[in-house]
């Protein structure tokens, strides 16, 4: 069974001492462009700069003391690695992070800065999984998957609990989808609090495996990692796909141009530094305006970890 609203509420209490309660902002320019009332849930202002800290924190603080003492482990080159390392540090336990050898030095430095013990491996999925298995065998650490984990999904859902508490009149919530942890937590929280809220996922056209999966009824393989929204290149799991099929009304694929336009609009008009993955939800609003016109719409800005030396409107 997927996490319940009670699981998400318990996760909110569990992470409350550690995670930020992020603000909800509005932007009159965006409202005018869409013809709707848009409410931006600012998860780019969460610890480690992304919603990922919620799920990692809930997973770490859900462990029994004897489990926690052996530490936690994962393979990741992105926000989840940082989130798990920080959550483990806050609990005072080890975090073993397997990272591909081609991970950017800045990301490796961030994980190490949070206290993560990094093991490098070849940059293939098989190498990541086999190296993680070796680390777990040697340490007894508990694996915390970035999205294929009920504790993580419940933690991600806490953002929507906050959003609906701040804006109870919401009619729609838009969140990006990659591996599915955020959209699943969003949908479970929304349906548990306000069943009439429509939950809509947005994803890049160049990484539209969730859209294709929902259309076909079977989990589809990911496309080559070409989208600028690097945080959304993960494939769905059977766990996340099952929740999406039941609770997510629609998946909207968006163009790369739309992602960049949405990201830049939030930088320029809302004065918020978001990453391309967070621009995906804004792109859905811009490219499908008629579907949102006149509505109260929440959008989860999932993260703000962007390479300032390679801003997308300056590349190429």
From TrEMBL:
Coiled coil: none annotated. GO terms for biological process: D-serine biosynthetic process. InterPro entries: Ser/Thr_deHydtase_PyrdxlP-BS (IPR000634), TrpB-like_PALP (IPR001926), TrpB-like_PALP_sf (IPR036052). Keywords: Lyase, Magnesium, Pyridoxal phosphate. One of its GO terms (molecular function) is ATP binding. It holds the Pfam family PALP. It comes from the Bacteria. Its cofactor is pyridoxal 5'-phosphate; Ca(2+); Mg(2+); Mn(2+). Residues 15-303 form the Tryptophan synthase beta chain-like PALP domain. Belongs to the serine/threonine dehydratase family. This is Tryptophan synthase beta chain-like PALP domain-containing protein. It comes from Tuwongella immobilis.
């Amino acid at each position: 069974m997927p996490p319940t609203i009670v699981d998400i509420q318990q996760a909110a209490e569990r992470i409350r001492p550690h995670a930020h309660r992020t603000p909800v902002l509005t932007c009159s320019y965006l409202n005018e462009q869409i013809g709707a009332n848009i409410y931006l849930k600012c998860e780019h202002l969460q610890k480690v700069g992304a919603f990922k800290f919620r799920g990692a924190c809930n997973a770490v603080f859900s462990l029994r003391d004897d489990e926690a003492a052996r530490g936690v482990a994962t393979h990741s080159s992105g926000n989840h690695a940082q989130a798990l390392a920080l959550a483990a540090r806050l609990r005072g336990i080890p975090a073993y992070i397997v990272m591909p050898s081609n991970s950017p030095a800045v990301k490796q430095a961030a994980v190490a800065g949070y206290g993560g013990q990094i093991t490098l491996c070849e940059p293939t999925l098989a190498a990541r999984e086999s190296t993680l298995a070796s680390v777990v065998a040697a340490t007894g650490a508990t694996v915390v998957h970035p999205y294929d984990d009920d504790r993580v999904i419940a933690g991600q859902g806490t953002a929507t609990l906050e959003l609906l508490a701040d804006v109870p009149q919401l009619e729609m919530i838009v969140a990006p989808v990659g591996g599915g942890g955020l959209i699943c937590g969003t949908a479970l929280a929304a349906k548990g609090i306000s069943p009439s809220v429509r939950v809509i996922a947005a994803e890049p056209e160049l990484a539209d495996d969730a859209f294709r999966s929902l259309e076909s009824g079977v989990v589809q393989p990911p496309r080559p990692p070409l989208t600028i929204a690097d945080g959304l290149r993960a494939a769905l799991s059977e766990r996340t796909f099952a929740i999406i099929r039941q609770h997510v009304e629609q998946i909207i694929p968006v163009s790369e141009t739309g992602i960049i336009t949405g990201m830049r609009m939030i930088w320029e008009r809302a004065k918020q530094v978001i990453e391309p993955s967070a621009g995906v939800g804004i792109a859905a609003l811009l490219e499908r305006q008629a579907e949102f016109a006149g509505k109260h719409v929440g959008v989860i800005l999932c993260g703000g970890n962007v390479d300032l030396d390679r801003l997308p409107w300056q590349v190429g």
